[in-house]
Amino acid sequence: MSRHDGRSADQLRTLRVERPYFGSAPGRVLVQAGNTTILCSASVSEDLPPWKKAQENPTGWVSAEYNMLPGSTAPRKSRRADGRGTEIQRLIGRSLRAVVDFQALGPRMVTVDCDVLQADGGTRTLAITGGFIALVDALHEVEDPAFEPKNVFRESVAAVSVGIVNGVPVLDLDYPEDHDAGVDMNAVMTGTGNLIEVQGTAEREIFSRKQLNELLDLAESGIAQLTQMQRDTLGDRWPMDTSSKS
Asked: Domain 15-236, what architecture?
C-alpha cells in the first residue's frame, strides 16, 4: 500500500529531535514527526503535592500538562482548557509514571509540559515519546551528588498511533489518515515491548482479534524504532544502560 505521503504501511514519519531547545527548564526537547511538532520541557521541584507531603516517608511524583497553541491547528484553537486536553495530559502522566521508581526519585516533583506547536496527528503519542527524553534530561540536572538519575527508571517508554485505513493496518497516522481511519488506536509501550496502555476505537468499522494483533505488532515495531531514537538522542544519559547502574 502506498500512502498519500509516499510512506509504506509500516513506516514512521520522519523524526527530528532538537535538544537542548530554548528555555530555562532543565529538560527541554523539540520533537517532530512529519509536520507534528511538540516542545516537551521538564522541571524539577522539591515542592510535593499536599497528599504526598502527608505521607510518613514522602517519595517523588511525576505529572504532565498538555496544551495546543492556538495556531497549532486550523481553525484556531482556543486557549481554554477542554476535556480532550485533560484526558491527554492524564495519559502522558500515567505513561511516564509507569516507568519511574518513586523511591529512587526521592521527594521531588517533576512536571513535564508538552506544548503542541503544530498538530498533524499523533500529538499525544509524540508527547509521551518526547516527554520521556525531557524527563531523563531534567533529572540529570539535579544538583545532588547522592542522587543517581539512572536508578529512577525501571524502563523506557514511547508511544505511537496505528490504525486501519482503507482496510489496511498502518503505522503512525497523520491527520488526514486519522480523519479517514476505520479503526484508530494509540499504543504506549516500554522499550522491552511491555504494554502500558492501549486506546483503540472502531471509528467507522468493527475489527477482529486478528486485526487487533496485527495493529499491536505494527505498534511494537514502531516503538522499537522510537526507542532506538531515544537511545541515540540521550547517549550516555540513556537510563537502561545497566552497566552504569549501582
From this structure: 2-Layer Sandwich (3.30)
Domain locations along the chain: 15-236
Specify the pTM: 0.95
Asked whether 150 and 239 are in contact (CB, 8 A), the reply is yes
CA dist 41 and 22 (Å) reads 10
pLDDT, tens digit, 9 for 90 and up, residues 207-218:
999 999 999 999
28 is in an annotated binding site: no
Closest among 199, 181, 235 to 92, alpha carbons compared: 199
Q: What is the pLDDT of residues 138-183, one digit of tens each?
A: 999 999 999 999 999 999 999 999 999 999 999 999 999 999 999 9
Of 1, 3, 2, the residue nearest 176 (C-alpha) = 3
**Residue in 10, 25, 4, 7 with CA at minimum distance from that of residue 135:** 25
Q: Does the annotation flag 76 for ligand binding?
A: no
| Cβ-contact 90, 98 below 8 angstroms | no
CA distance 55 to 170: 46
Check the annotation: does 121 bind a ligand.
Answer: no
Q: How much is the pLDDT for 22?
A: 87
CB burial readout 57-82, b (16+ within 10 A) else e:
ebbbbbbbbbbbbeebeeeebeeeee
Partner residues linked to 157 by β-bridges = 190
Indicate if the pLDDT at residue 242 is higher than 70: no
Q: How far apart are CA 21 and CA 41, in angstroms?
A: 9
For residue 78, give the amino acid letter: S
Match 498511533 to its residue by C-alpha cell: 161
Q: In angstroms, what CA-CA distances link 192 with 16, 55, 82, 115, 157?
A: 23, 32, 34, 28, 9
